[in-house]
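Hi there, hope your week has been kind to you so far. For a while now I've been wondering how a particular protein folds. I'm sending you its amino acid sequence along with the C-alpha cells. Could you read through the record and tell me how the C-alpha cells relate to the sequence? Take your time with it, there's no hurry, and the full record follows here.
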Amino acid sequence: MTKPPRRVAILGSTGSIGVNALNVIREMPDDLAVVGLAAHSNADLVAAQAEEFDARLVAMFDDKAAARLKSRLNGGAVHLPSGVEGLCALAADPEVDVVLTSLVGGVGFAPLLSAIRAGKTIALANKEPMVMAGAQFMREAERWGARIVPVDSEPSAIFQCVQGLNPDPKAAAPLKTIRRVILTASGGAFGSYRGDLSEVTPAQALKHPTWKMGNKITIDCATLMNKGFEMIEIMNLFALKREQVEIVIHPQSIFHSGVEFSDGSVLAQMGVPDMKLPIQYGMTFPARTARVVEPLDLVKVGTLEFRAPDFRRFPCLELAREAAKAGGGMPAVLSAADEVAVEAFLAGKIRFTDIPRVIERTMGAYQATGGLPGFPEVVETDAWARRKAEEALR
C-alpha cells in the first residue's frame, strides 16, 4: 500500500529556504504535500504559492500583508491570525506532519516551541532559537516526542553523520563516542579579501561566493557569526562541549562537515553546494528519497582546501565562543545584539566592523544570573539585549 505524502507547513515560504523547499516539493508530489504557508509581508508571492500548491492554511506576520492576502485569496484557504499567533497556530495544526521553519531571527522562537509541544517533526533552518535556548528546546522535544532535524547545510551534515551510526531514528544516537565535530565554513564574502573591512559596503558583504541566501544570514556568513551560531546550535543538538567543535574554513563548500569518533575515524557528509539537499532530507527524514540535485563530481571539483579561521579579523566568531562558554542567557544576548547590529549595517547606519563592537558592548552590559533560564526569562533577555544593542548603536 502506498504511503500518503507527508503534510508540510512552511514558515518563511517566501525566503530562499522556503522557495527551495517548494522547489523540492514540486519535484516530489508523491512524497510531500503543502498544508500551510506563512511569511512576513510578501502577500503576492504567498498567494501564488498557495494557489499552486493548494495550501489549506495561510498566515502573514504583518497585519497589512494579511489583509492583502485575504483580498487575493477569496476562497479555499483558511486565513490564520497575523503576527506570532498565526505562526504558532500553523506550527501546531493537527494536519501538519512536518514543520519547516526558516523564519529570520528571534521571531521563530514561539512557533518552534508550539511545533515541539505539538509533537511535530521540525525541519529547522531558523537557528537563532536554538542559540537562544537550545538545551531547553531539546528537553521539550524529548518530553513531547518531537524531532528536530537541522536544515542548515553544516548542522545537517553532522546530524546525518550521527544518524548513520544508528538506523533506528527513535533510538538515542551514540553521542558519547563523538570526540569532536568538524564544522566547516565557506568564509563568506570576505574569506579571501585582504582589504580594510571597515570600508566594505552592504552590497559587497551580500555577495556570498557559494550560497544564495537571505540578507541576514549572508551578512552573518560574512562576519562568521553564522558559524558561531551553528557551533552553539550543534552543542545543544548533540550535548557537546565547546572544545568538541572545531571550525574550519573550506571555500569549496563540498565537505559540508564531519564527525570524529573516539577511535579516530571521521565520517563526513559531502555533496554539491545546493540547499535543496539538506532541505529534502529534513522533510523526508529518516527516509532517503530520489535526488533532486546534481550528483557530486569529485574529479571536476579537483581540490578541497581547509584552513583555520582568523579570529582576530573576524571577532564575531570569538564572541560566539565566549557566549557559548558563559552559557545561561548570554547566547540569547549574542543572538539579539547581532540581529540589531546586522539590521543597522544593512541600513547604512554603522560600518561592517562596528557589528562586533555593538555585540561586545551588549554582552559586556549583561549580568548573568547563572543556571539554565526558562523560556520566559530567555524572551525577557532577548528584549533587554535588543534595547541595549540599540543604545550601543548610538
Observations:
- DSSP finds 16 helices and eleven strands in the chain.
